[in-house]
Write a structure and sequence with these properties.
354 residues; alpha/beta
């Protein structure tokens, strides 16, 4: 639904040409908001997402090509924004291992640049920050999980609803440290400087416009591998579990938090699909085989540092605060992602194989 007479000051989205960012920008523009995107266009697929947004919304979407590590364009973008959705980040654990300093500069220093710009030049603007479940570290050791069929399950019944925001933080890997640092800075700027800031710790968001790779966006990567008939590498034993949330449901949560900022300012929320949308790597491969009609080939490799054998989101705090809940079950969400990936990559793959 398009809302008329909305404040014409734009919503700023850092990293707005990325997967989640472009879905947020699309929904905002669709409902009548002006959107200003700040993105360095460095990652695969983001230029295509930028073209897609401009073709759909034209002048309602404006894109600044800049880097959050440079404070000047950040200040210029923040100054006139009615809200800031901060998603620009280095997003791969593996890249953080290869370049910890670069990872820190983007995720921690870049976030400080955004927060300082808001604090000094536009203090009334709400700030929503994209954090990650990786701030909780590995969470549980091998003695606290048991194998149940093709997945791990926690031994403790206290975890039946997933991991809540009360879980202790344990930044594991340079990526966990940089995102965790940013996470806590956002929280503290809300407490100390009275910013209208919210932290959303997300788990396995998936859906259309996601160009998945081995290092990030694993659900899309698994589906793409099946479409391209390329063998997968599974790090660990495949029984590790995550919960998955369709990007449409994630966008619902982000916009609900933005629209009701007075209810949630200063708080930290987990955002994920929850127990009903949890899946192990081996279970996902089985789903993909049934969905595509193709056998998914894979091989195993050693666990990677910081890999969580089990993580499922307890998002009840967000549900209580905003009345939000996931609407799209995993199987339906996989169908939508597969349809988009197949339309985007499947034809080229079939022509190459002909």
């Amino acid at each position: 639904m398009i809302v008329k007479n909305r404040n014409n000051r734009p919503v700023l989205i850092t990293g707005g040409c990325g997967f989640i960012g472009c879905n947020l920008a699309d929904r905002l523009a669709e409902r009548g908001d002006n959107v200003l995107i700040l993105d360095n266009l460095a990652r695969a697929g983001v230029r295509e997402n930028a073209q897609w947004l401009k073709s759909r919304h034209r002048d309602r979407i404006n894109i600044i090509v800049a880097d959050i590590r440079d404070p000047i364009p950040v200040i210029d973008a923040v100054r006139d924004a009615r809200a800031v959705l901060h998603l620009a980040a280095q997003v791969a654990v593996t890249d953080s291992m290869a370049d910890p300093v670069g990872d820190f500069e983007i995720n921690a220093r870049g976030t400080i640049n955004v927060l300082e710009a808001v604090r000094l030049h536009n203090k009334s603007a709400p700030v929503l920050f994209a954090s990650t479940n990786k701030v909780y570290g590995r969470l549980i050791d091998d003695t606290q999980i048991t194998r149940a069929g093709a997945r791990y399950a926690p031994v403790s019944e206290m975890l039946v609803d997933g991991i809540s925001e009360n879980a202790p933080l344990d930044f594991y890997s340079p990526y966990g440290c940089s995102k965790g640092t940013a996470d806590q800075y956002v929280r503290d700027y809300a407490r100390v400087f009275s910013l209208q800031a919210v932290v959303l710790r997300m788990s396995c968001i998936y859906g259309p416009r996601q160009f998945g790779t081995e290092d990030q966006g694993w659900i899309a990567h698994f589906l793409l591998s099946a479409i391209r008939n390329i063998p997968l590498t599974i790090y660990g034993d495949g029984h590790q579990v995550r919960d998955a949330l369709h990007v449409s449901d994630a966008v619902d949560a982000w916009l609900s938090a933005l629209d009701h900022i007075a209810l949630v300012r200063g708080r930290v929320f987990n955002l994920g699909g929850g127990p009903c949308n949890s899946v192990s790597l081996l279970e996902l491969i089985d789903h993909i085989t049934k969905l595509t009609g193709r056998e998914v080939k894979y091989a195993f490799a050693d666990w990677r540092p910081g890999d969580q054998p089990w993580y499922v989101t307890d998002a009840r705090a967000l549900s209580t605060a905003l009345g939000w809940a996931p609407k799209i079950p995993l199987r339906q969400g996989l169908q939508s992602l597969h349809a988009w990936l197949d339309s985007r990559f499947g034809l080229a793959n079939r022509e190459a194989s002909a």
